[in-house]
C-alpha cells in the first residue's frame, strides 16, 4: 500500500473571506495547472485521518469538481472554538477551474462547510438530494449567500455534468434519509465515491440501496473506488435501522414517567420512529434544540415524515401534562456543553428539570473524542434520579456506516483498479486498505492518503505526486471570527498551567530602573510554597538574569524581553515542573539629567509588544 507523506499539518493562515481574483492567477495555482496535463488528480482537503470536514477535489485538465464540503466540531481542548473547517487556500487558487459541487447527503460533516466555502469562492452549481438541498437553502439564506451558487435537486440515477465530469447519483442507505453514492465518469475512467453508506436491506423509509444501479455502472469498469472507512474495525454487518424499533418500543412500554430522548438531529428516520412510538403510546412531544427543530420542519415539508399538528406541544406547556404522556425529543447526544440535554442534566435549563422516574434514552453513539462528554452527561442524569438507556447493548442505536462484510461487498461489486479509503481516522484507512488487498486489489494500487496529498491517476498507473496547502481553520461562529491556532494553544496553556505576567524597565545601558513587577494567575505552586514567597524568588531571578546578561542582550527592550522569556521559561520548568503562559512587558527609558527633557535631552520609551512563549518539554 502506498502512504501519503506522514506529516504534521501546518496551521493554515487566516483567510480573508473576500474573493480575490488575483489569487487564482498566483504562482502556486499556475504551477498546479501546468502539471495537470491529461492526468486525473484526486486532492482530499478534509475527512482523511479524521472524522469530519469531508471535502474532496477531483481535477482533470482545466476542470475541478468537488465532492462535499463539510466541517468538524472541536475537541474539548479547543477552548472558544465552535467549528473546524478545512483550509480553503487551494480552492481559492483554483477558482477559475471550479465547475461545481456534488453533495452526497445532508450531514454537517458533508455540507456544513459550504457557507464558508462560498464566502471564499463562487461555485456555478451545487447538486444534491432534496433533503440536503433543503437544509442548504436555509443555511445560505441565513448567511446571505444565496447568490453565490445555484442549488439543484437531483433524483436517483439522474446524471449531471460538471465540466468534463459526468456524475450519476445512486441511492444508498445511511443514517440520514436521501443519501447517494456517486458514479463519476471522467475522461480516463469511472470513479465510484460511496459517500457514507451501509447496506440496509430493510430500511425504515423503504428507500433501498440501488445495488442494481451501482452494479450496472460498475460493469463499465471502475478505475478508482473511494469508500467509507468508518467501521472497518467492526466485523460482520451493521444492523438495520428497523432493528431499533423493537428496543425503542420496549423502552416506551416500560417507562412510567416522562421520556427524554436524544439522537442526531439529522437522523430523520430515527426521529420518525420516535414520533411514531409517541403516537402509539398516547404521548405528546416537545422538541428542543434549533437543529432538531430545523431538521424536523424541513423533513416534514419535503414529505420525509408525517405527523399531526397536535402531536407537538410547546415546552412551556409540557408541565401541564401527566408525566406518562410526555416525550421530550432533544439535541445533545454528543454531550455538547450548550445543548439542551446537557443543560437539563446539569440543572441549568430554564424550563425543564430532570425528575426521579424520568427515562432518558440516548439513541446515538459518541463520535470519537466525545466519549468523556457523553459519560459526564450520563453521570449527571443518573445523579438526578433518571433511568438512562444507552450503549450498544441497549439496542436503541445502530450505526449508519458499513462494517467489514459490507465493505467487502462494495469492493467486490466495483472491482476497482485503484482503491482510496476515505472518511476515517488513519488506522481505519489502513485497515480498509488491507481489506481491499484481501479482496483482490493490487497492494501497489491501494493509496492511504492524508489531507492535502495529491494522487495522480492514469489508465495505466497511479502515484502520489506531492501536496497542496492543507490544515484547519478554527471558527468562533457566534462572532464570525477566525481563530489563530496559536490563540487556542494560549488558552490551553492558561487552562492548564496558568499565567505569569512580568514587567521591567531598563535604561539604555541595560541597568534595571524599575521592577520586575510580577503577577500570577492560576499558577499551581509546590506544596508549602506561598505565592508571596514565589513572587519574591521570581523577582530575584529576573534581576539576576538582567545583571548577568551580555551587553548585546540589553541593547533594546525587545532583546531584554527575549532574554527573560528564554531564561524564565527554563526556570519555570525547573522550579514548577510546568510551563505557564508567560507574558513580559519590557521598557527601555533614558532621561537627560537635570533638564527633564529640555535643551534636547527628551524622553525615550520603548515598549515591547505582548508576546507569549510555549516551550514544549
In helices, the fraction of residues equals: 25-40%
Query: How many helical stretches?
Result: 16
Looking at the overall shape, the CATH architecture of the largest domain is 4-Layer Sandwich
CATH superfamily of the largest domain: Ribonuclease Z/Hydroxyacylglutathione hydrolase-like
Strand order of the main beta sheet, please?
8-7-6-4-3-2-21-22
CATH topology assignment of the largest domain: Metallo-beta-lactamase, Chain A
CATH class of the largest domain: Alpha Beta
Binned strand content: 15-25%
Kindly provide the radius of gyration, computed on alpha-carbon positions and rounded to a whole number of angstroms: 29 Å
Overall pLDDT confidence: 85
Shape: globular
Counting structural domains, the number is: 3
Q: Which segments are poorly predicted (pLDDT under 50) over 5 or more consecutive residues? A: 7-21, 592-617
**Biggest sheet: strands, sense, closure?**
8 strands, mixed
Number of strand segments = 29
Distance between the termini: 35 Å
Structural class: alpha/beta
Write up this protein.
The protein has 617 residues and is α/β, with parallel strands linked by helices. It has three domains: 35-236 and 399-483, Metallo-beta-lactamase, Chain A (4-Layer Sandwich); 243-394, Rossmann fold; 485-613, Ubiquitin-like (UB roll) (Roll), CATH 3.10.20.580. The protein contains 16 helices and 29 strands. The strands form six sheets. The chain has an eight-stranded mixed β-sheet with strand order 8-7-6-4-3-2-21-22. It has a six-stranded mixed β-sheet with strand order 9-10-11-12-13-19. Strands 15-16-14-17-18 form a five-stranded parallel β-sheet, sandwiched between helices. Strand 7, helix 5 (130-143) and strand 8 (151-153) form a beta-alpha-beta unit. Helix 15 packs across helix 16. The model is unreliable at 7-21 and 592-617 (pLDDT under 50).
Amino acid at each position: 500500500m502506498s502512504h501519503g507523506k506522514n506529516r504534521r499539518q501546518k496551521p493554515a493562515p487566516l483567510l480573508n473571506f473576500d474573493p480575490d481574483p488575483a489569487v487564482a492567477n498566483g504562482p502556486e495555482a499556475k504551477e498546479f495547472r501546468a502539471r495537470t496535463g491529461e492526468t486525473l488528480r484526486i486532492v482530499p482537503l478534509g475527512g482523511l485521518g479524521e472524522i469530519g470536514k469531508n471535502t474532496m477535489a477531483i481535477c482533470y485538465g482545466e476542470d475541478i469538481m468537488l465532492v462535499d464540503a463539510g466541517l468538524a466540531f472541536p475537541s474539548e481542548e479547543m477552548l472558544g472554538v465552535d467549528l473546524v473547517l478545512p483550509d480553503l487556500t487551494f480552492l481559492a487558487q483554483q477558482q477559475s477551474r471550479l465547475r461545481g459541487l456534488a453533495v452526497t447527503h445532508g450531514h454537517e460533516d458533508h455540507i456544513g462547510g459550504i457557507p464558508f466555502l462560498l464566502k471564499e469562492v463562487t461555485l456555478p452549481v451545487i447538486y444534491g438530494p432534496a433533503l440536503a438541498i433543503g437544509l442548504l437553502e436555509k443555511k445560505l439564506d441565513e448567511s446571505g449567500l444565496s447568490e453565490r451558487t445555484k442549488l439543484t435537486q437531483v433524483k436517483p440515477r439522474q446524471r449531471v455534468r460538471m465540466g468534463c465530469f459526468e456524475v450519476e447519483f445512486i441511492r444508498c442507505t445511511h443514517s440520514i434519509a436521501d443519501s447517494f453514492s456517486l458514479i463519476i465518469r471522467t475522461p480516463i475512467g469511472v470513479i465510484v465515491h460511496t459517500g457514507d453508506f451501509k447496506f440496509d436491506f430493510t430500511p425504515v423509509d423503504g428507500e433501498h440501496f440501488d445495488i442494481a444501479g451501482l452494479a450496472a455502472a460498475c460493469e463499465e469498469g471502475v478505475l478508482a473506488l473511494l469508500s467509507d472507512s468508518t467501521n472497518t474495525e467492526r466485523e460482520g454487518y451493521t444492523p438495520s435501522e428497523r432493528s431499533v424499533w423493537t428496543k425503542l418500543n420496549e423502552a416506551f412500554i416500560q417507562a412510567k414517567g416522562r421520556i427524554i430522548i436524544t439522537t442526531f438531529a439529522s437522523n430523520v428516520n430515527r426521529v420518525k420512529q420516535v414520533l411514531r412510538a409517541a403516537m402509539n403510546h398516547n404521548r405528546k412531544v416537545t422538541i428542543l434544540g434549533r437543529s432538531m427543530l430545523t431538521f424536523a420542519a424541513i423533513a416534514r415539508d419535503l414529505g420525509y415524515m408525517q405527523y399531526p399538528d397536535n402531536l407537538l406541544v410547546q415546552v412551556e406547556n409540557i408541565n401541564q401534562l401527566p408525566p406518562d404522556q410526555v416525550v421530550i425529543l432533544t439535541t445533545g447526544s454528543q454531550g455538547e456543553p450548550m445543548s439542551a440535554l446537557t443543560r437539563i442534566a446539569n440543572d441549568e435549563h430554564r424550563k425543564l428539570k430532570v425528575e426521579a422516574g424520568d427515562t432518558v434514552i440516548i439513541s446515538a453513539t459518541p463520535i470519537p473524542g466525545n466519549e468523556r462528554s457523553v459519560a459526564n452527561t450520563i453521570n449527571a442524569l443518573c445523579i438526578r434520579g433518571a433511568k438512562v438507556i444507552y450503549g450498544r447493548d441497549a439496542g436503541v442505536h445502530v450505526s449508519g456506516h458499513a462494517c467489514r462484510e459490507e465493505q467487502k461487498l462494495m469492493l467486490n461489486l466495483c472491482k476497482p483498479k485503484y482503491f482510496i479509503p476515505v472518511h476515517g481516522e488513519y488506522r481505519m484507512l489502513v485497515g480498509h486498505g488491507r481489506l481491499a488487498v484481501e479482496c483482490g486489489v493490487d497492494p501497489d494500487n491501494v493509496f492511504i492518503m492524508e489531507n492535502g496529498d495529491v494522487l495522480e491517476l492514469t489508465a495505466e498507473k497511479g502515484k502520489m505526486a506531492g501536496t497542496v496547502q492543507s490544515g484547519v481553520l478554527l471558527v468562533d461562529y457566534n462572532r464570525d471570527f477566525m481563530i489563530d491556532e496559536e490563540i487556542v494553544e494560549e488558552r490551553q496553556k492558561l487552562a492548564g498551567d496558568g499565567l505569569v505576567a512580568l514587567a521591567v524597565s531598563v535604561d539604555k545601558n541595560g541597568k534595571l530602573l524599575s521592577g520586575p513587577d510580577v503577577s500570577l494567575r492560576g499558577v499551581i505552586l509546590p506544596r508549602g510554597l506561598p505565592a508571596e514567597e514565589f513572587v519574591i524568588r521570581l523577582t530575584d531571578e529576573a534581576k539576576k538574569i538582567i545583571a548577568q546578561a551580555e551587553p548585546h542582550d540589553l541593547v533594546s527592550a525587545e532583546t531584554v524581553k527575549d532574554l527573560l522569556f528564554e531564561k524564565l521559561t527554563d526556570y519555570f520548568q525547573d522550579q514548577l515542573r510546568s510551563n505557564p503562559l508567560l507574558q513580559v512587558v519590557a521598557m527601555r527609558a533614558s532621561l537627560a539629567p537635570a533638564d527633564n527633557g529640555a535643551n534636547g535631552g527628551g524622553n525615550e520609551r520603548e515598549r515591547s509588544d505582548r508576546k507569549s512563549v510555549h516551550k514544549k518539554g
